[in-house]
Amino acid sequence: MGCQKEIAKLIVKQKADYILALKGHHSGLQGELEAWWHKCQREGFTADNFDEHTTIDSGHGRIETRRCQQVLVSKSWLNSKYQWVGLKSIIKVTSDVHEKTTGKETTETRWYISSLDLNAEQALSSVRNHWQVESMHWVLEMTFREDGSRFRKGRGPLVFNVMRK
């Protein structure tokens, strides 16, 4: 499932909400979003539409600092130009990782759009919970090779999924 307008429409139509990651194939949108974000930073975010939350985790020989910044976007240029159904917030997550043994430091920034009216702490928790699910699916794929299964129709996929586990 990717960051697609049609997927967002289907989600909202089912009376659900979304948090969708912007990835490389959305480089135009992401570039405009970054420019808009920097403009808002220069002009100053207002307290009623901006929130920020930082966490620091240590383990596995590294220290990771995650900073989540979230902006509510009612009737922004993003809504009118790109027509994302139900868009309410833009989420920016910056992860700074310090490897204790090598001293190497890396920074990664990820962007998300959401139909939820979340604060930054809730947004970061939601994004991190998604990656826990992805990690579990990766372990299942490596263990059971589910993606390579030939069972695709009827009850076969469900039956063999249950039997494997």
TrEMBL record:
InterPro entries: ISAs1_transpos, Transposase_11-like. This is Transposase IS4-like domain-containing protein.
